[in-house]
Recover the amino acids of this structure.
């Protein structure tokens, strides 16, 4: 593995390896001393053109627990507006000799563009509305751990509903590429205004009716809805959005026994997800966060541990 | 001024003749001391005319100047280009239009016809000095806010009314900015959804064309539609022409050849506004250019510096070069549908008529200005973006095999390009 730009970059073998290693890394997190020497002497840059709390800090922890040196570069705002091209920003960091650049940018495809310019390994930490592959991997990892712990098997045959602003979501695109490969049956749920064009060619089910889907699902994944979208006419009011698509306390009771709730965060409590749902026994939200560190350790390990700087 | 005899060239109608040129005009007899150019196997067409060129001067001389753009035009077989108004500053007064005219004359490689802005600063809110630009030395006939759409229908109506008294033409960049906002950069469809690029739906073009043809009809004025890119847009224009509305339209070379699938690798060279469409739209555009629903090819030659393209796709500047490969692309895409007379019409006669440019798009007959291009119908090349007269390198045809037709360009009897 040289880069992680998209879920589709991973072969089946690599995918299995990444998830297996994540499992091992997860155990490291529960130790009192968490440091592994695997990436000693390697340097990882978090290059975030967009705000992030959990993704950036979990990549930073992942790098540090593997003994890599990690620095954070915040390049907020469009580099275009500052006169420096995105390419210049990337070439500058690359020239410092870093081993991996973990990049988030509001522009779809930007991380793939960067991979064409630099020598370092590129990791996509979210590119616009395109993909967020480590989020999908951590979602899968959190689900797999949960099912295993409760002796419910793997993701094979499990039904996952992903609900919310799918049009603007990079998380949904990565999950649609990943979860079916692990055997899950995915249903996308959104109002017509928040569905991506061409979504019906994605090979998953698509519906506007959350209530019809909920009793069937093993995982209800709720995606963040930005309040600003209301002003763009994507939905009439928060009230109307919640009436159709919010995971309210009432809807919580429609979930079948053993079903779990996932959300990539940050949550809009009271909008797409009620506190009853977010804090319920079936909520995976915090498991997803801890899964994030394990998955990112695994990714960094596989990108950087194999090839020494000399090779 | 060169005295020339171009011997044995085929004309657009298929006849073969010797063309004699003296003092910038076609003459009946071989002038004394004329250089003889053997044009056996070559086709002579009237010099090409572009209604849609971005020359970037004043303001972005690092990406193109009137001189470098004129040179690129001459290499493409053009003898006249219309310099779009979205320079810095915008061409929205008589003085600025005359400045562009003078830069063109100083370069002396093609006839540079300034296009005036419809609204001050392209802001869409107040009319630019349309009549004063028309009455100036620049004699502006064509007005456009190209780059942005005049969204306010009331302003567009007043502009139509204002220019109707002198027969001015409004060239609209048809893009409803509510349907295709500033971020819209990819044809809305399966690919935009998959790539996560903001979609630019075809209706954002056709609803503006529908509005504007009705405004043109209501005001008795003339509309020209820039860079039509969709089947829907073509259908509205076809309807309007059948109704007798004074509307003309252009298609770009890139919309005749390239499709949205080029965007799959996020290469910003292919970012253009309106965006590249699908095969179905390309087919509609070719058919419309063949049947005359679309009158002309406008290059929308849009030079950009690499550092304005080396951004994330949504942040990169839209636009691509077009002058040097325009004829090649038309030959490549329209081979089955347009003969040489058809190409001469779409790329010279029609645009000269639409723009009201005297001395361009004329038959190659005795007494006419010697504006012509000599074309090799057989020669091909692999396009190299480095081999360009433009100051920019955003050439979408780089690495493609295309015709390489232009042997010689004559502008008012002067050789402005020779292979």
């Amino acid at each position: 593995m040289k880069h992680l730009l998209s879920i589709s970059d991973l072969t089946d073998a690599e995918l299995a390896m990444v998830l297996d290693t994540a499992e091992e890394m997860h155990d490291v997190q529960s130790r009192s001393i968490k440091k592994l020497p695997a990436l000693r002497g390697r340097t990882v840059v978090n290059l975030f053109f967009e705000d992030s709390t959990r993704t950036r800090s979990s990549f930073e922890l992942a790098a540090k627990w593997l003994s890599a040196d990690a620095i954070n570069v915040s390049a907020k705002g469009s580099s275009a507006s500052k006169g420096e091209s995105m390419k210049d920003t990337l070439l500058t960091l690359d020239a410092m000799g870093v081993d991996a650049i973990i990049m988030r940018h509001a522009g779809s495809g930007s991380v793939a563009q960067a991979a064409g310019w630099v020598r370092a390994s590129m990791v996509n930490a979210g590119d616009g509305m395109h993909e967020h592959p480590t989020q999908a991997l951590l979602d899968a990892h959190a689900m797999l751990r949960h099912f295993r712990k409760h002796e419910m098997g793997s993701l094979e045959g499990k039904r996952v509903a992903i609900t919310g602003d799918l049009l603007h979501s990079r998380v949904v695109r990565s999950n649609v590429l990943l979860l079916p490969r692990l055997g899950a049956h995915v249903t996308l749920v959104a109002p017509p205004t928040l569905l991506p064009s061409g979504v019906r060619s994605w090979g998953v089910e698509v519906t506007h009716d959350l209530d019809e889907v909920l009793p069937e699902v093993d995982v209800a994944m709720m995606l963040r809805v930005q309040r600003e979208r209301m002003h763009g006419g994507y939905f009439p009011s928060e009230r109307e959005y919640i009436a159709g698509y919010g995971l309210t306390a009432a809807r919580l009771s429609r979930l079948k026994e053993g079903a779990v709730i996932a959300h990539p965060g940050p949550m809009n409590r009271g909008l797409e997800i009620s506190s009853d749902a977010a804090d319920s026994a079936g909520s995976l939200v915090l498991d997803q966060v801890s899964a994030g560190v394990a998955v990112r350790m695994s990714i960094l390990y596989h990108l950087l541990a194999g090839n020494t700087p000399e090779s | 001024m060169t005295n020339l005899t171009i011997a044995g060239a085929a004309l657009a109608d298929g006849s073969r003749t010797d063309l004699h040129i003296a003092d910038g005009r076609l003459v009946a007899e071989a002038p004394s001391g004329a250089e003889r150019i053997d044009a056996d196997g070559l086709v002579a067409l009237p010099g090409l005319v572009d209604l849609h060129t971005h020359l970037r001067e004043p303001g972005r001389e690092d990406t193109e100047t009137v001189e470098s753009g004129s040179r690129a035009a001459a290499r493409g077989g053009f003898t006249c280009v219309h310099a779009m108004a979205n320079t810095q500053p915008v061409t929205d007064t008589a003085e600025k239009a005359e400045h562009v005219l003078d830069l063109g004359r100083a370069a002396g490689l093609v006839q540079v016809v300034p296009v005036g802005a419809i609204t001050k600063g392209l802001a869409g809110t107040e009319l630019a000095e349309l009549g004063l630009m028309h009455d100036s030395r620049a004699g502006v006939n064509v007005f456009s806010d190209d780059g942005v759409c005049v969204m306010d229908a009331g302003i567009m109506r007043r502009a139509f009314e204002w220019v109707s008294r002198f027969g001015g033409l409004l060239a609209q960049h048809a893009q409803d900015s509510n349907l295709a906002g500033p971020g819209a950069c990819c044809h809305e469809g399966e690919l935009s959804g998959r790539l996560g690029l903001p979609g630019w739906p075809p209706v954002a073009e056709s609803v503006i064309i529908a509005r504007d043809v009705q405004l043109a009809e209501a005001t008795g004025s003339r509309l020209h539609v820039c860079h039509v890119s969709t089947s829907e847009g073509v259908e509205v224009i076809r309807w309007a022409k059948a109704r007798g509305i004074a509307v003309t339209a252009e298609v770009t070379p890139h919309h005749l050849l390239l499709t949205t699938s080029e965007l799959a690798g996020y290469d910003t060279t292919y970012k253009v506004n309106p965006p590249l469409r699908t095969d179905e739209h390309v087919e509609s555009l070719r058919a419309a250019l063949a049947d005359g629903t679309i009158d002309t090819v406008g290059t929308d030659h849009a030079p950009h510096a690499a550092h304005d393209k080396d951004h994330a796709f949504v942040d990169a500047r839209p636009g691509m070069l077009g002058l040097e490969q325009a004829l090649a692309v038309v030959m490549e895409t329209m081979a089955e549908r347009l003969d040489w007379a058809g190409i001469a019409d779409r790329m010279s006669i029609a645009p000269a008529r639409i723009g009201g440019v005297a001395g361009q798009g004329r038959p190659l007959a005795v007494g006419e200005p010697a504006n012509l291009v000599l074309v090799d119908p057989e020669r091909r090349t692999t396009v190299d973006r480095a081999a360009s007269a433009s100051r920019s390198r955003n050439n979408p045809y780089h690495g493609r095999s295309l015709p390489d037709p232009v042997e010689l360009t004559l502008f008012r009897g002067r050789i402005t390009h020779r292979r």
